[in-house]
């Protein structure tokens, strides 16, 4: 069962919760993977409701998104399961099947080929309509040092902004 919602009624909720970690799920070649995201933007472009996710070049999620430009976003409604957020934010889908490891249950997407994760019931289905790799020289130096510093594991690991048109929004019940 699911309750369809007006995404704007939940935009504030999504932005309030994203700092604590929400899930971005992808699927390509029958492989489903989910990762924690702490950054994102919700708004309007080209007259469409858009969720923008910022995914580093090194993520397995990036590989799947490049193969299939669709994703789902899942957001907790009540208390978040910290273990889900932590495992999905530290383990790569290259090394493990996070959904199986955590016993996550999926619900088939309505408008995309990617499923939703029922444990975080507020779901956005998104289709990538634009993407843009960050231009390193355009990043404010303080943030370049902080997030992509030379000599750290994040050196050169810039984010790509994936603009997903929100094609469905609902709460799994
Ligand atoms: C709270 C939290 C927020 C995160 N936010 C992002 C994010 O917005 N973008 C990103 O690329 N990685 C983010 N990460 C890191 C990824 O979730 C992590 O590297 C994950 O293991 C990548 O999985 P994958 O290789 O299966 O794609 C975050 C991690 C945590 C714990």
**Overall helicity:** 10-25%
CATH class: Mainly Beta
What are the low-pLDDT stretches, counting only 5+ consecutive residues below 50? none
User: Helical stretch count?
Assistant: 5
Largest sheet: 8 strands, antiparallel
Give a list of the ligands. Answer: flavin mononucleotide
**Apparent shape:** globular
Structural class by helix and strand composition: alpha+beta
Number of separate strands: 10
- Rounded to an integer in angstroms, the radius of gyration calculated over CA atoms is 16 Å
CATH architecture: Roll
How are helices and strands ordered from N to C?
EHEEEEHEHHEEEHE
End-to-end separation in angstroms reads: 5 Å
Task: Give me the oligomer status.
Answer: single chain
CATH H-level homologous superfamily name: Electron Transport, Fmn-binding Protein, Chain A
CATH-defined fold name: Pnp Oxidase, Chain A
Strand percent estimate: 35-45%
């Amino acid at each position: 069962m699911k309750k369809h919602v007006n995404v704007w009624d939940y935009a504030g909720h999504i932005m309030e919760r994203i700092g604590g970690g929400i899930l971005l799920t992808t699927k390509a070649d029958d492989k489903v993977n989910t990762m924690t995201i702490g950054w994102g933007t919700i708004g309007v472009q080209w007259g469409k409701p858009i969720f923008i996710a910022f995914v580093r070049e090194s993520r397995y999620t990036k590989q799947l998104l490049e193969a299939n430009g669709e994703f789902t976003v899942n957001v907790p409604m009540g208390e978040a399961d910290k273990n889900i957020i932590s495992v999905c934010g530290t383990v790569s889908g290259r090394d493990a099947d996070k959904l199986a490891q955590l016993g996550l249950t999926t619900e088939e997407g309505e408008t995309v080929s990617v499923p939703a994760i029922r444990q975080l019931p507020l779901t956005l289905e998104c289709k990538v309509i634009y993407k843009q790799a960050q231009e390193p020289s355009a990043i404010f130096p303080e943030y370049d040092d902080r997030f992509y510093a030379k000599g750290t594991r994040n050196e050169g690991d810039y984010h790509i902004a994936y603009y997903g048109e929100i094609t469905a929004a609902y709460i799994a019940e």
